Amino acid sequence: MKFWSGSLLLGLLVVLYLQSCVEGEHAKGMNVCCTSFYQRQIPAGRIVSYEETSLGCTRPGLIFVVRNGKRVCVNPNLGWVQRVRGEIDWKSVDNSTDPTE
């Protein structure tokens, strides 16, 4: 009986551990950090979305997702990056408001 109880407890702990690993992968703001920044300006028409890096990163950054799905780290302090970010934010606000409602 003691062996069965220990096995059951061990099995439950393994299941809980695996579930926490899966949940952690889908959490917003995963531990994605930029180790370097892309140096050239990316045309705004090629950028479809962006993500902010994790708050735990030593260097804050922005990750632009371009049309082909490639993710590019950029410096959020650059003027063109702030402008493109604002355009993307504006498009998402503009698309979320439907004038027919």
Short overview:
The protein has helices at residues 2-25, 79-96; strands at residues 47-52, 62-66, 71-74.
Number of β-strand runs: 3
Summarize the main sheet.
Answer: 3 strands, antiparallel
* Strands in their spatial order, largest beta sheet: 1-2-3
Report the total helices: 2
Net shape: elongated
Average of the residue pLDDT scores? 78
* Percentage beta strand: 5-15%
Q: What is the first-to-last residue Cα distance?
A: 65 Å
User: H/E order of the elements?
Assistant: HEEEH
The helix/strand class is alpha+beta
Low-confidence stretches: 20-29
Query: Which value, in Å, is the CA radius of gyration?
Result: 21 Å
**How much helical structure, as a percent, in the residues?**
40-55%
Structure description:
- The chain is of the alpha+beta class.
- The chain is built from two helices and three strands; from the N terminus they run H-E-E-E-H.
- Strands 1-2-3 form a three-stranded antiparallel beta sheet, covered by helices on one side.
- A hairpin with a 4-residue loop joins strand 2 and strand 3 (71-74).
- The longest helix has 24 residues, at 2-25.
- The chain is elongated.
- The model is unreliable at 20-29 (pLDDT under 50).
Lay out the secondary structure.
Blueprint: H1 2-25, E1 47-52, E2 62-66, E3 71-74, H2 79-96
Antiparallel strand pairs: 1-2, 2-3
Which short descriptors sum up this protein?
three-stranded antiparallel β-sheet, 15% strand, 101 residues, alpha+beta, elongated
